[in-house]
Amino acid sequence: MSKKKTGRKRYSEELKREAVQMLLDGYSATSVASNLGISSPSLLHNWRRKYVTESPVWQKNSADLFRQHFTRSIESRNAEN
């Protein structure tokens, strides 16, 4: 009896890291998935969670991006007042 292949697509570590870096650079998961041919944006969130928790460099990048977003949010709110 032969084994059936599952319909799951496998992605290289290089593609995963590139996709996560694009997320950290501010691109939306939908646009990254579309541009890189990834079947589901939710995969990107899983990969980001994995790489950010495993890598001190990405933890710093993620924290820096959060801080920048938070600062811009406060600055725009203050400019409106």
How do the strands and helices of this protein lay out in sequence?
Blueprint lengths: L12 H12 L4 H8 L4 H14 L1 H25 L1
Helix pairs in contact: 1-2, 1-3, 2-3, 3-4
Fold and architecture overview:
The chain has 81 residues and is mainly alpha-helical. The protein is elongated and about 60 Å long. The chain is built from 4 helices and no strands. The chain has helices spanning 13-24, 29-36, 41-54, 56-80. The termini are far apart.
Percentage of residues in strands:
under 5%
Rg over CA atoms, rounded to whole Å, is: 17 Å
Shape: elongated
How many domain regions? Answer: 1
Task: Report the structural category.
Answer: mainly alpha
Q: Whole-number average pLDDT?
A: 79
Distance between the termini: 71 Å
Low-confidence stretches: none
Give helix % range.
over 70%
Largest sheet: none
Per DSSP E runs of 2 or more residues, the count of β-strands stands at: 0
Q: How many H/I helical runs? A: 4
Would you list the SSEs in sequence order as H and E?
HHHH
